[in-house]
Fold:
Amino acid sequence: MSTDKTASNIDRLCAVYPGTFDPPTLGHLDVVRRAVRLFPQVIVGVFPNPRKAPLFSARERVALLRSATADLPHVTVKAFGGLLVDFVRREKAQVILRGIRAVSDMEYEFQMAMANRNLSGIETLFLMPDEAYTYVTATLVKEVARHDGDVSGMVPPAVLTRLKKSLATRSRRSASR
Structure:
């Protein structure tokens, strides 16, 4: 294989980092930043996942992630539905990225990676966030924020602002019922 052909293949490498991202955390963004060092193009795929009763709509999560990744020119944020592997194929990506915080994440992620590879042949690459974010989950962020705890070290500033506003709105709605 010629060097020119290899270089052009590398330039087209694309990875999809899928998730619910409700809300986007600094751990999610750390994984995105690690990914852009490995791939020329990274697509953050926002899955609506109504089974998780999201705090933010998919549109809001896309906007929050676009804001948080605005300084990363090779990152695109898109919402998707259906099977992840179908989205990856439509985007012409070669790899699925998943963040692994702890060993407890591994069993589920391993099963999903094997299923995705079986369905499509697409490989999954696991990335670990910085140690500072290994305990940060979107579920934890929402729970702490619901009880007026400080989540400023867990989410980007725009997410913090939107989180406070959303929770205040929900609190007012609940109080008026």
Summary: Strands lie at 14-19, 41-46, 75-79, 95-99, 123-127.
